[in-house]
Specification:
Blueprint: H1 7-17, H2 22-29, H3 33-41, H4 48-57, H5 66-75, H6 81-93, H7 97-107, H8 114-126, H9 130-143, H10 150-163, H11 168-178, H12 187-204, H13 207-230, H14 245-262, H15 266-277, H16 287-310, H17 317-325, H18 331-348, H19 353-358, H20 360-365, H21 376-400, H22 403-420, H23 423-435, H24 442-463
Length: about 475
Amino acid sequence: MKHTPTISAEFEYYLKQNDMTLSQFAEYSGVHQRTLSNWITQHRPVSVQQLDRITVAMDLPEGYFYDLYIENYIIDLSPNFRRIEPLLYRCAELDKLDAIRRMVGHIMDNPLYASRLFDVAEALFEQGRHAAALPLYENVAEVEKYQHSERLATCQYRIFTIQVGADQSRNLKAAILFEPYVERLDEIVQLDALKDLANVYRSLRKWDKLDATACKMRDKAKIQYTMKHKQEKRKDYGKKTRSPLFGYIAYADLLCACVCEAQGDYKQALQYTYAYANLDWVIETDEDTQHWVNLYKHWSEGNTYVNKLLSGDTGVLADYVEYIASTNKTNKEMVTKLLNVLMAANRYQIDVDKILRRFETEVSSLTQPETLFDDMYTNQVIPEQCARFGYELAYYYLYQGIYSDGFKYLMYAMVSYHTLNNETYFINCMGLFLHFRDYAVLETKADFLNLIEKVWLENVEKDGTADHRD
């Protein structure tokens, strides 16, 4: 049998090596001498806080003894949540994720701990320690997988939120796994869950999924909005949506307009656009409400231009450009607007050189990394649109014969779609490059081939088929 060393044995060895008494160490560390004595002679576990003081006094890195502590006092003894809980928080602070997984995996044989682990996971999630919270949510979800509880649904929502990232292939899997749990969430929380789910489907360009999710969100939001104003003295359970309640109805119309636009049904897209512009039915009159009402009217104005433009009414382009010039010029706002201009230019062979020069600074900034935010729209939809913007800009320049700029933006789009793990548009970029390959300089061809080889090697490694030949 393998002998597992103990922390107390290492501590005794330290005292011997440094010719130090318990009394001296107690004074130096701030841990009571009797506590140290009981720890050594009677094998009584020290607390995590005391262990941290001992570790500092021994001039060792933070968390140095945590793996041994788990082995000595959690795995080898009956689980005690009074020791486990503070250690979970400390391991989260120090990013010791493997230690968290070991603890959680050990104690989940006892389903009674599920509730307490869930509370810790929620606290860590609230602190922004998502990676540390994930294994807790996963284990609670595993224990309760046969129960139709709201706690299980909440775990699945948190897992979905944490797992959604840059890889669109994984995002699709995460969305599909989470979707069946939405109905088990609290009715108010369902609205935010559906909105997050919709934004992921929008970034993936899964139009049927987006349409169904948006319609479901609209129906549920209408019910909640009606109930809110019919029952003026309705009990407040403390759960509130992230945005004003009426906004979920308006946003559902905006999403349905996106679906119709993507499918080429511009007439229906305009009907949805007019719907979220007309918010006279909104009862609230406070400042925050007015802010959102004005935003939807503003978005409706721009998207009305877009639907007419993409349907072939190129006469509205000048008005749309002036609309763009008068609006917020942050990356989050500009990428969609300039992308619409390029899509129309490529579809109807419009010369937009002057427009691109006018927004030269904004165009350049759109290919720079964007700071991550907490909302699903910014972290999912915007990166996909930036990649699409690069592709459309490359398409425009290459067909204009401006090859240096065309290949520059095409390489940006390829790298972006590789990061997003979007195979369809990565292949589209490859096709566009090969179509114009005769106009690429040697350096550009080399960059292209290096990228293709890099992607190939990564895929081979991922599939486990690499034989590592020289």
